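Give me the fold.
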Amino acid sequence: MDQPRRLFNLFKSVSASCAPLDISIAEDGVYTYNTQTITGNAAVDQVIRTLPLPELGRLLRHIRDWNSTSKTSGIAQTVLHAILKLRRAEDVRAAFAATPNNTNTNVPSLGPDDDAVPSTTQNVVRAKDGLREVVEALIPYTERHLARTERMVQDSYVLDFLIGEMDGGVILDDDGMDVDC
C-alpha cells in the first residue's frame, strides 16, 4: 500500500484482463448480466471487502490522487465503486480514525488543555477531517470526469449520425447539391 504506482498498475492489469461486461442470453431470449465481480476479479473484490481499516484509509487517499488525472481516473472510479459497494459506510469512516500517522495539520486545536480531552475525541475530529478532505477532493474531479464522459457520448452520437449519412450514398458537394456516389 505504500507503493501507489504498483498498486495502480495491479488494478489496471486486473481491469484490462477481464471482459467489460459478461452477458448471457438464455434460451428464452432473456439477457442476464454476470455482476459477480466489481473490479474484474473476485479475489480482488474479496481483498477490498476484508482490507484492514488503516489500509482502507490509505487506499482511499490513493484513489483521491489517481482521480485527479483523467488518465488514471477510470481505475480510481472502479476501485472507489468497489469500496462503496463492498464496505459499509461505518468502515469507511472508521478507516480514517484507524489510519496511523494521520498527517492532517488542519485539525483545529481543542483548547489549551488538549491532554484533558480523551484521545478518542481527537481521533474522531481527525477522522472527520481526513474523510472530509478525501471526499471534497473526489467530488470536483468526479464531476469533471462525468462531464467529459457525457461530452464523449454526445460526440459519439454525432459521429454515428455522420457515418450513417455517409453510408446512405448521398454526399453534398461544395454548392450544397446532392451528388450520387
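Confidence is low (pLDDT under 50) at residues 101-125.
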